[in-house]
Design goal:
This protein is α+β, with helices and mostly antiparallel strands. It folds into 2 domains: about 70 residues, Glutaredoxin (3-Layer(aba) Sandwich); about 130 residues, Glutathione S-transferase Yfyf (Class Pi), Chain A, domain 2, CATH 1.20.1050.10. It contains 11 helices and 4 strands; from the N terminus they run E-H-E-H-E-E-H-H-H-H-H-H-H-H-H. Strand 1, helix 1 and strand 2 form a beta-alpha-beta unit. The radius of gyration is 17 Å and the shape is globular. The chain starts with 9 loop residues before the first strand and ends with a helix. The N terminus is likely disordered.
Length: about 220
């Protein structure tokens, strides 16, 4: 149910396999915000993308009433503050909010870069990448602990930051010859719990679609 004012114009510049763009889609869905989604070709970026994010020239970009907001976790925070109704993604308590931002930052600095080594590298580099990646996931699993979600009993900011990467788990496992379920069973159970939420389920592509994209990427970049 969209609660924003009718005159609000909300556009998302998207690239469907991007875990970062998936975060924004989950946040918008959680808040019930209607928006227009525009797919970008990152090998031939549109003039709109270059105009709205001249610094990094990357997606996702949320354009709200003509004003661009860039960087996925910054966008998620903007959505939570701009449409300030339930469900709230960030905790109201300042300390808990600082911890949620800390873990969001940890995810940003580690998961993508380590995961990419698993599916693009070979030999010793890949083995090192696998080790780092599993250590990273185990650290996140430790932070999750026995909670249903990272923030407690409901989907929140850290879940939104991390869960998009689970759509890549099949790709990591296939190319890396590993089992995330065997290494991090609680994290996989958490991912399955998140997928029961419509906002997550409709925002994440099928893992096989991601795998097909990764195959094509490797072929195109002579990594196969």
């Amino acid at each position: 149910m969209a609660r924003h004012q009718e005159q609000d114009s909300v556009v998302l510049l998207d690239f469907w396999p991007s875990s970062y763009a998936m975060r924004v889609k989950i946040a918008l869905a959680e808040k019930g915000i209607a928006y227009e989604c525009k797919q970008e070709d990152l090998r031939a970026k549109s003039s709109l993308l270059l105009e709205k994010n001249p610094v990094h020239k990357m997606i996702p970009i949320l354009v709200h009433d003509g004003k661009p907001i860039c960087e996925s976790l910054n966008i998620v925070q903007y959505i939570d503050e701009t449409w300030n109704h339930e469900p709230h993604l960030l905790p109201s308590d300042p300390y808990q909010r600082s911890q949620a931002r800390f873990w969001g930052d940890y995810i940003d600095k580690n998961v993508y870069s380590m995961g990419k080594k698993v599916w693009t590298m070979k030999g010793k580099e890949q083995e090192e990448g696998k080790k780092q990646f599993i250590e990273c996931l185990r650290r996140l699993e430790g932070e999750l602990g026995e909670k249903a979600y990272f923030g407690g009993e409901k989907l929140g900011y850290v879940d939104v930051a991390l869960v998009p990467f689970t759509s890549w788990f099949y790709t990591y496992e296939t190319f890396g010859n590993l089992s995330i379920g065997a290494e991090c069973p609680k994290l996989v159970a958490w991912a399955n719990r998140c997928m029961q939420s419509q906002s997550v389920a409709k925002s994440l592509p099928h893992p096989h679609s991601i795998h097909e994209f990764a195959l094509q990427y490797k072929k195109r970049n002579a990594l196969a």
